[in-house]
Task: structure prediction
Amino acid sequence: MTIHKYKNEYAWDGVPVLKYKEDGTHFKNITRRVLFGGNDNLPCEIRYFEIAAGGHSTLERHEHAHAVIIVRGKGEALVDSKIITCNPFDVLEIAPLVWHQFRANKNETFGFFCIVNINRDKPTRPTTANIAAIAGNPEIASFIRT
Amino acid sequence: MTIHKYKNEYAWDGVPVLKYKEDGTHFKNITRRVLFGGNDNLPCEIRYFEIAAGGHSTLERHEHAHAVIIVRGKGEALVDSKIITCNPFDVLEIAPLVWHQFRANKNETFGFFCIVNINRDKPTRPTTANIAAIAGNPEIASFIRT
Result:
């Protein structure tokens, strides 16, 4: 039995704060915590991602799906061709091969649980042609950070 | 893309309140909501269970595992041979074949997310011999509801 007691400010006993990804300039002000690593009996991983004010995740897509539950603050998400306002306890399913990116609001820390298959493909970032297609919608063009 | 916007009081757009189980006298004052049903790309189900003051889940065990994140109020859980005080955002892993039961405190609604494999075995309830063994510990004997 593993228990991670919640401490405060979205920190848990025994759960280190990790880099979101090893390196890159395609994300900003975002951290990752693994609350449940998954195993054969429950083959999914539960992560808590936190984006500081003004930050964002990578604009990417992949064949695996995400289930996301917002838990801290407010933010916005590009999911496919929609920009979604995110509030605590909203639940989003991000289907396979859909472009997505999360952003914190300017003055607010934004955090969410993200549940994902332990067996999954690597995300891909948009090519120049992909970006041109995604940015065909002016609202989305001003939203995305690449 | 499926979005379930959070309404208030732990209710979500498009998510009906379901019976915890079809019938039985081995649980009390507990409801179930399915926030994510799972599929091949993410083979787990995310449920929100809510236990009204004084209620409890079934004392049971199974081969599949649970990952539980407390989100509303306070309660207690028997997990294996320990009684655990549960507060919001505590994370519990319930390993295979471990006896477990959740209880709300007397004056408080207690709610938690429970993530589970979409492919899973049916829970089993304790036999008289199991109960005698579980209740060997007096603290646990007074905790369990069968």
User: Anything to note?
Assistant: The interface with chain A takes residues 1-6, 10, 12, 15, 35-36, 39, 41-44, 46, 63-67, 69-71, 79-80, 82, 84, 87-96, 98, 113, 115-117 of chain B (CB under 8 Å). The longest helix of chain B spans residues 128-134. The first strand of chain B starts at residue 2 and ends at 4.
